DNA sequence: CGTTAGCACTCGATAGCGTTGAGTGCTAAT
DNA sequence: ATTAGCACTCAACGCTATCGAGTGCTAACG
């Protein structure tokens, strides 16, 4: 569909534009040592590329900038994966080598590494609920009528809720109910917890109907709110250094979006595995129509655990980011692998 | 030091400026129904007020704006406490009435209420560590050689760390050490935990020297990292709607500051009890030299528990914010009172 | 003597205008 | 097919004039 020369020119324009953030003219391309055509020739090709929809002109008599379609072609066919050099690889790994024995820590760290190395905003989703199961369920009394309910998953994740007992129930009764739950529910995946609760444990706890309802409520609440704890972000303000965000209004809509955890989750959920690139308007959310989102899933033994992603302007260093996401997702998989043995 | 009329004029200027964000001229003051002097008279008074340092002129032939000193005088002598009307009081309370049985929830909610009702940025610090004590310390085994250590405080706060056992230690040995710790340390305030550990429990655990060191490390880590969990913020992007932040660079320095939890903690710590107002350069941090920070401590039985605060531009609705902080800090004290019975 | 009307003055903001220069598209020559 | 040449376009920039909100000062007034 495109000639070799057109591809080459498109490639050069995008590379240059990514660096300079300014429209690229024919002369500056022609001057490059790896280009041996005159500006006029380049101009002709650029005109063709524009007609084909790969380039745009902000206004007549300005250079060209890539269109969404142009970026798309670039990502699909042209981009050279940023050669994360051995030194950088080591750097990434060295971030992890310290005693990182908590999953939350690893994930948060991953987000930090990403944003630091790219200067974009990073978003990391922790492991999906369906791969985690209940390990332990416990009640710690605080006072006469209050207690903390603690849920531990097999991944080492801990959730907790403070509850106050109904007046007509003693701590002992409550504790008994918990014991029964523990006996029945340990090992059950969190997603099946609810149905399991109703079907199997229901009758057994019949006589503790009240407590049962209450505990169920706590479990539900916990499972719902877990979403908050699964999204980690870093470098949100990095966006502000990009020239495309010199307008405060844009910044606000973007930052507001990033604070909406549910929306973020929704964006990240149900992404196909592997590395995905969403360019500009390919994103469903209007607030990031001038951004690109690159995501990679990390998985253990074929099971997708979670997602790491980078949000930046459409004019983004795709090669570098994709390369980085690739090795980082693999490193994370290895690192997290031990939790799932 | 100031005549009644000067006070009145200063008051009017600040009130108007807070609303309009634009320099106030003599004519617009004179036109107000509650002012019966000609512009010329007002001008004379304004010139005097400027000489005294209460007003500033952005440039000749512009109106006057309040100086830091002006705001200070306003806050100390002139401001009418925003009459949080009964309806709003109810609104605040209604936010809380739902089943809020977790302390974190209450605090986070308080931050949200503040930012929603003021359109500024709110910062809330949870209860100080020294008022909380250890309630329970537990180990939940995950696999052969990993476990989750869980610490519960008397406030219902839960902290946890995943740990991996040294190879030469069994889970049973570890568990035993935990039992001893539990017996000795429950009820001890968190701040004294460390010294208590060394002095009293040290010998007892002598034979478990290795484990002891390890557990100590975990406790330390937990106590240190607790800071992160104690700072709650809401409405960080509200700043962006203020005209004084139309400049992206300012926004960035501000947002960067807000992300530094330790700095925030430092700013809030050791504040005198009651309501405090820090105007502009009265703040030590340069990044908020064009902001004002209003804080209120909330306390139970004379003991200060934590701090709630509002960060806004110096041109801030002091009356409203102070009034709101006042009733909210009291409401929180009541609500949190039950944890400290 | 405090207050006020009048007036010259200041200065940021805004609009209009010519200049500049990077970049284009087209044509004709190679 | 490529390229040199040239007329054309248009944002950006700087300059100037104008406008008007607001001031400071002086003199008049009750």
Automatic annotation (TrEMBL), chains A, B:
The lineage of its organism: Bacteria, Bacillati, Bacillota, Bacilli, Bacillales. This is Heat-inducible transcription repressor HrcA. The keyword Transcription regulation applies. Gene3D superfamilies: 3.30.450.40, Heat-inducible transcription repressor hrca homolog, domain 3, Winged helix-like DNA-binding domain superfamily/Winged helix DNA-binding domain. GO terms for biological process: negative regulation of DNA-templated transcription. Belongs to the HrcA family. NCBIfam families: hrcA. Keywords: Repressor, Stress response, Transcription, Transcription regulation. Signal peptide: none annotated. Negative regulator of class I heat shock genes (grpE-dnaK-dnaJ and groELS operons). Prevents heat-shock induction of these operons. Residues 1-72 form the Winged helix-turn-helix transcription repressor HrcA DNA-binding domain.
């Amino acid at each position: 569909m495109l000639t070799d020369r057109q591809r080459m020119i498109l490639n050069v324009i995008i590379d240059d534009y990514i660096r300079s953030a300014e429209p690229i003219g024919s002369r500056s391309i022609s001057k490059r040592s790896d280009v041996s055509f005159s500006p006029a020739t380049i101009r002709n090709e650029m005109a063709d590329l524009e007609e084909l929809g790969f380039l745009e002109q902000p206004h007549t008599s300005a250079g060209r900038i890539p269109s969404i379609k142009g970026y798309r072609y670039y990502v699909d066919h042209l981009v050279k994966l940023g050669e994360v050099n051995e030194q950088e690889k080591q750097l990434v790994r060295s971030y992890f080598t310290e005693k990182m024995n908590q999953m939350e820590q690893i994930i948060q760290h991953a987000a930090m590494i990403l944003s630091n190395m790219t200067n974009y905003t990073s978003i990391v989703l922790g492991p999906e609920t369906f791969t985690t199961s209940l390990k332990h369920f416990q009640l710690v009394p605080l006072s006469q009528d209050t207690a903390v309910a603690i849920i531990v998953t097999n991944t080492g994740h801990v959730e907790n809720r403070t509850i106050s007992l109904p007046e007509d129930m003693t701590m002992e009764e409550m504790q008994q109910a918990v014991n029964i739950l523990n006996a029945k529910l340990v090992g059950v995946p969190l997603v099946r917890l609810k149905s399991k609760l109703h079907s199997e444990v229901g009758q057994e706890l019949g006589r503790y109907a009240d407590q049962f309802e209450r505990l169920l409520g706590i479990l539900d609440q916990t499972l719902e709110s877990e979403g908050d704890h699964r999204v980690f972000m870093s470098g949100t303000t990095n966006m502000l250094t990009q020239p495309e965000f010199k307008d405060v209004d844009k910044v606000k809509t973007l930052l507001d979006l990033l604070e909406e955890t549910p929306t973020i989750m929704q964006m990240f959920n149900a992404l196909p595995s592997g590395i995905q690139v969403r360019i500009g308007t390919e994103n469903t959310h209007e607030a990031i129509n001038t951004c690109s989102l690159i995501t990679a899933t990390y998985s253990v033994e074929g099971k997708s655990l979670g997602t790491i992603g980078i949000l930046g302007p459409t004019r983004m260093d795709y090669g570098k980011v994709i390369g980085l996401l690739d090795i980082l997702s693999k490193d994370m998989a290895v690192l997290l692998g031990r939790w799932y043995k």
